[in-house]
Design the sequence.
């Protein structure tokens, strides 16, 4: 990544919403991005760091609140542009270990937007029907339409992560899937989809605390599965699988971003900021009227 956030430290911005690094591109994206072909050494990255972020939780909460209006405005403009034939849309892909906050991030993102313009999909183990098709089949069916913001809680990357760790499919088939994913995401970008792929990077000890919290609260038992413990036992293998997936599939068309996720406020701020940067780069505009505005106004006043 542009700057490694090693344990015990992390880059910090001067304040909420400020962009370290000058005006040569979206600042947070450059801080968190995994450059094409580079291995993200996840074990060396501090999961409690706040690179580029506000000075603390209170400042982060204020910064998140300030992002709401510009995000909502950009979403409306994106949708409005689609009514005039603009095919652009945005897809947020969220991946991470159990308890990293994928569901919480989805809730936060939806809170910034008009839900009517969002398409949210959570992917679980494939069904029998889905297994009868290419692994990308169910993904293609869930893509956002022009003008929409799509949010994936897990995604097609499950099909290179879980099979690799658990040996569910032949290794050569997993290898082929990386190239298929890159071709698929390049085609999406060529068709006007801005793909924002975020790995929510939670620490091993932090996951234990969150799993314990689920076990200790009867209201959260529905969130817990014994399978979570099986996956936790495979933590090093999953970490390696994520590193490899990001190394192979962080591209110019669809880069990966690593967001430290131990601090929930930073996680929410960072994902919101990444979306704001990408929507600003898209720069959607309200389409001009395709009718005579003054004539319609005159007719309306006459009635």
Sequence:
């Amino acid at each position: 990544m542009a700057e490694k956030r090693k344990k015990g430290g992390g880059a910090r911005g001067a304040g909420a919403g400020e962009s370290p690094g000058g005006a040569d591109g979206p600042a947070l994206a450059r801080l968190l991005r995994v450059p094409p072909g580079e291995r993200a050494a996840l074990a060396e990255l501090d999961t409690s760091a706040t690179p580029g972020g506000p000075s603390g939780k209170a400042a982060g909460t204020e910064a998140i609140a300030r992002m709401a209006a510009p995000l909502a405005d950009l979403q409306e403009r994106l949708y409005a542009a689609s009514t005039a034939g603009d095919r652009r849309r945005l897809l947020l892909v969220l991946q991470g270990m159990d308890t990293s906050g994928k569901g919480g991030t989805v809730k936060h993102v939806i809170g910034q937007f008009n839900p009517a313009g969002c398409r949210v999909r959570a992917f679980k183990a494939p069904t029998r029907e889905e297994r009868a098709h290419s692994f990308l089949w169910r993904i293609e069916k869930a893509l956002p339409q022009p003008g929409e913001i799509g949010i994936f809680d897990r995604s097609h990357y499950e099909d290179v992560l879980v099979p690799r760790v658990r040996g569910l499919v032949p290794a050569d088939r997993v290898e082929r899937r990386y190239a298929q994913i890159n071709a698929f995401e390049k085609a999406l970008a060529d068709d006007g989809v801005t793909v924002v792929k975020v790995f929510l990077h939670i620490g091993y000890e932090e996951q234990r605390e969150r799993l314990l919290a689920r076990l200790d609260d009867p209201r959260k038992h529905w969130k817990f599965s014994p399978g979570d413990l099986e996956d936790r036992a495979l933590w090093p293998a999953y970490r390696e699988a994520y590193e490899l997936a990001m190394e192979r599939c962080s591209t110019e068309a669809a880069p990966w971003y690593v967001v430290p996720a131990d601090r929930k406020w930073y996680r929410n701020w960072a994902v919101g900021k990444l979306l704001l940067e990408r929507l600003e780069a898209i720069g959607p505009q309200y389409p001009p009227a395709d009718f005579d505005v003054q004539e319609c106004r005159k007719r309306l006043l006459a009635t």
